[in-house]
């Protein structure tokens, strides 16, 4: 079964694009289908998040590589999975911020805010000041 994008209208959901329309037509009338409704991620919002991480990494000296830096941010921001060892010790494992790992925009907004606070702390800035810097940085990168 394929994913389809739907638009909410006053009379119900309708396919949001041609590919979704084609898949929608394959469904039989009167049949019951299970769906998980999520608000898909905004790709430009994801790009802003990647600019936040890149800008912060490029302006810090604590972490030697970007992978370690991203894991540290995820851990501090609480973007983790808890795993219990056989001995009952609980470890927090940082999760990925990849586009596919956080498919819901509302969930991503929360993660973005937490990461923004962590990055602002790393750079010793206020979150609003860092947000302004990220927007400027993103504008420069998108033009090039």
Helix content percent band: 40-55%
Strand content: 5-15%
Q: What's the count of strands?
A: 4
Shape: extended
Mean pLDDT: 90
Biggest β-sheet, characterized?
2 strands, antiparallel
| Structural class by sheet pairing and helices | alpha+beta
Number of domains: 2
Strand order of the largest sheet: 1-2
How would you spell out the order of helices and strands?
EEHHHEEHH
Cα distance, first to last residue? 39 Å
Taking all Cα atoms into account, the compactness measure Rg is 20 Å
Give the number of helices. 5
Could you name the ranges where pLDDT drops below 50 across 5 or more consecutive residues?
none
Molecular structure report:
- The protein is an alpha+beta fold and 144 residues long.
- The protein folds into two domains: 1-37, no CATH class; 43-143, no CATH class.
- Helices cover 50% and strands 12% of the residues.
- The protein contains five helices and four strands; from the N terminus they run E-E-H-H-H-E-E-H-H.
- It has helices at residues 18-25, 43-58, 66-77, 105-123, 127-143; strands spanning 6-9, 12-15, 80-84, 90-94.
- Strands 1-2 form a two-stranded antiparallel ribbon. Strands 3-4 form a two-stranded antiparallel sheet.
- The protein is extended and about 60 Å long.
- The model has no long low-confidence stretch (mean pLDDT 90).
